[in-house]
Amino acid sequence: MALPSYTETRYRIWHYIYIAICTFVFFFLIAPLFVIFPLSFNAEEFLVFSEGMKNLDPDAFSLRWYKDMIYGTKNPWGLAAKNSFIIAIFATIGSIILGTLAALGLSSRHMPYKGIIMATLISPMIVPLIISGVAIFFFMAKVGLAATHTGIVLAHIILGTPFVVITVTATLSGFDHSVTRAAASLGSNPVNTFMKITLPLILPGVISGGLFAFVTSFDEVVVVLFLAGLENTTIPIQMWTGLREQLSPTILAVATCLIILSTLILISAELLRRRSERLRGINR
Amino acid sequence: MSSETKQILTTDGIPLEVSLKKAEKKNKIKAFLLVAPLLLFLVITYVFPIGEMFSRSIDDKMITNMLPKTFKEMENWDGQELPPEEVFAAFYYDFKALVEKQEHGKLGQRLNKEKNGFNSITKKLFRQVKRKKIDESISIKEQVMKVHKRWRNVEYWQAIKRTAPPYTMSKYLKGMDMYYAADGSITQVDEDRRIHRILWLRTLEIAFFVTLFCFLMGYPIAHLLATLPMKYSNLLMICVLLPFWTSLLVRTASWMILLQQQGVVNDFFVMIGLVADDNRPEMMYNKVGTYVAMTQILLPFMVLPLYSVMKTISPSLMRAGKSLGGTPFVAFWKVYFPLTIPGIGAGCLLVFILAIGYYITPALVGGASGTLISNQIAFHMKQTLDWSFASAMGLMLLSGVLVIYWIYNKLVGVDNIKLG
């Protein structure tokens, strides 16, 4: 973004203002995440920077909240983490299977009523979560699945499939269908063609859709608030109760762990996106 | 079809057209079967329950089922003067049946919502019925009227008649701060009790301004990301994507820490001398907190669609605009900006849709003046247990969202939503 030497002064000033605005916005986006790190190592019970922390006094920092998170008495985080992972993993698997199949059908040019069906499949992403929560709660209560893991997994499959449908449809839009016809002409049956040809090519899209579904489930709180009983508590539910009631630094320790997890997911999503673009580049 | 094409036959003697149609149909069914599992799953667990919310929101069958004989007799009553003996008798027998099932309390409560004063007079009637004080061989009307003077008041009988239809729109009216008056006309509630209208307006206002702030902040950085060389823009993209992938609750928690009275933002304001140390402003548990936190949380949803549109705009267009004599501002306004309008539309609609139904962040940082319609729905689901009212409010919100979704679908197309 270097300015050419002939730029007039007023445009030069405008350019610096523009850079300053952008810097501010990037700071606004990313900085809030970083207040959590230092405060989670706070030796005291308050959620503010103590004098000791400002002077970088080593005694002001400690791992006590991390210890509390793992070993604390009557600690809900262990159960919550276990539940969260179980629910998210099953919800992801369900979303991937249903979403990928649907995306394959939707990408076919023979698909009837494509517009309305696509709009329906995406709708759980658009409809406000509170409404989804109420509707899913009514359904689960009627069939007796409220306050069960199964009920929450099904609810999260509903919320996760739109992401898989979108990413896989996007991957399939650059897909060269002549390779599947070639496989068929060489005597492969449709299932074999899918497993050996189509799936490896769309795999980046499938996995990145799966990552979205995983994060959606892992981070989902509104619907779970309606569905979960005491036994089905998840990390977001514990954070929600914590933030509303006893605001303790243990939450910040958990939050730090979650930020590390999301960083890992971001890195894998980025790598997948690049791989997908490379694969599709070869096809073109 | 002309006759020529009809004559083309496949090897097994079937006209090509027929054979082709058959194959097409087979393909259609194949494609549909792939979509079917998800579609069926969503219809059963999601679309259908939303429809059920509608029937729940207008359902008013409770009294209709409780007083079947009464409503049948009331069909012949003009509703002007006190009802005839038959209506009183039918009501008495319905009531007696309810007393046996111990459901008379529910009736009293429900009728009390329709008109104040029912609760006490149904209790009085209950005591008379329980002690078998009412002689069924003589005029029941006379005896019921003696129980309490309100049973002699025609307005109470009119109120019972109003509850006859099994469906009611009253929950929707309540959501707009209106109600059915005694004569059946739609009336507004007193001005100082119009809480729902304030909430709707506030929800629209916050969604609008959050969208505006997101646009004002998202446009410059999307432009920067799209015009910088790849190696720098990839690095800066992390600033957009990391919050996007981070848990909503984590981001809300960090704003709660930043905005509290002893928080970092207030510390900073004190340090630069903007506010006095003993007079730190309250930035959380009000609208300010909701605005700030929601803008940061929804900003990536604005930047990503804008970026994907700006990426496709060739830089030579701006150069051409400048070389034809436009100042950078004119070139930007006449050439670049119009080309980004699809991205602006996509981003703004997406942010607006998400903002209008927001629940978690307003509930945590919004306080009393920063809560939205979603919080009211959750309140009625969890606290007052008025599920039919929660359903009605939810569907009112949903219809608004669906209109925007429809516009979004027309302008952008749902299959063009880009993630990451």
State the main characteristics.
heterodimer; A: 284 residues; mainly alpha; MetI-like fold; 3 domains; 76% helix; globular; B: 420 residues
In short:
The complex is a heterodimer of chains A (284) and B (420). With 284 residues, chain A is mainly α. Chain A has 12 helices and no strands.
Fraction of residues in helix of chain B:
over 70%
> What is the N-to-C order of secondary-structure elements of chain B (H for helix, E for strand)?
HHHHHHHHHHEEHHHHHHHHHH
The parts of chain B where pLDDT drops under 50 for at least 5 residues are none
Strand segment count of chain A: 0
Number of helices of chain A: 12
Which secondary-structure class do the elements of chain B indicate?
mainly alpha
Gyration radius of chain B, rounded: 32 Å
* CATH homologous superfamily (4th level) name of the largest domain in chain B: MetI-like
- Beta-strand fraction estimate of chain B: under 5%
Largest sheet of chain B: 2 strands, antiparallel
Low-confidence stretches of chain A: none
How is the biggest beta sheet of chain A arranged? Answer: none
- Widest β-sheet, arrangement of strands of chain B: 1-2
- Count of discrete alpha- or pi-helical segments spanning 4 or more residues of chain B: 20
Please report the two chains with the greatest interface, counting residues with C-beta closer than 8 angstroms to the partner's C-beta: A-B, 91 and 91 residues
Strand content of chain A: under 5%
- How many structural units, i.e. domains of chain B? 3
The assigned structural class of chain A equals mainly alpha
Silhouette of chain B = flat
Average residue pLDDT of chain B: 85
What would you note in describing this structure?
- With 284 residues, chain A is mostly helical.
- Chain A has three domains: 1-33; 41-75, no CATH class; 77-283, MetI-like (MetI-like fold), CATH 1.10.3720.
- Helix content of chain A is 76%, strand content 0%.
- In chain A, helix 1 crosses helix 12 (249-283).
- The longest helix of chain A is centred in the C-terminal third of the chain and has 35 residues, at 249-283.
- The radius of gyration of chain A is 24 Å and the shape is globular.
- In chain A, 45% of the residues are buried.
- With 420 residues, chain B is mostly helical.
- Chain B folds into three domains: 3-58, no CATH class; 61-166, no CATH class; 195-416, MetI-like fold (Orthogonal Bundle), CATH 1.10.3720.10.
- The two termini of chain B are 48 Å apart.
